[in-house]
Amino acid sequence: MTEFIDWLEKVSKKDSRVRAVLRRSLAFDPGSYPPAFPYVEPFVKDEDNSWRRRMFYLVAGLWASHWREGRTGKPISIARACARHQSSGNSTSTERRFISLLDADSDQLPHRLRQIVTLLKEQPVDFGKVLEGLLYWNSGLKSTQINWAREYYRDLESRTGTEPFANQENSQ
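Now predict its structure.
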């Protein structure tokens, strides 16, 4: 999945309009904005799976909306980025939004992801990993949602240094 993001980076360095087109594509259902086709179709051209195709378009738009000139830092997972944002004190709603994202169904997912990515504008998000997780979003096991939740709460705990239930006494 990283190859896709690397390719978008390369293409957008040659032509900054790429990012504008992909950002604009977020106003439409993923995969339904024709000007975005030249930038995503090379990666999904033989793809029959409509979910997979939609997720490539969604992540391309999210990547473009999040892109910043000169961003530094190693890209991190969206869960870790949310935990960092929460622990930095920038927002009291980060956890609520993150939980809403984890609970999103297929129709809600693009909107909730756009909200989270906007919230994380200062964090270096790894969109290759976002795409990888989204491809399994509809799994009956909810493995992506579980993995993201675990990563979020583990990272949040390590940043705040508090353990859950640490202040509660044993009532038995």
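The mean pLDDT is 90.
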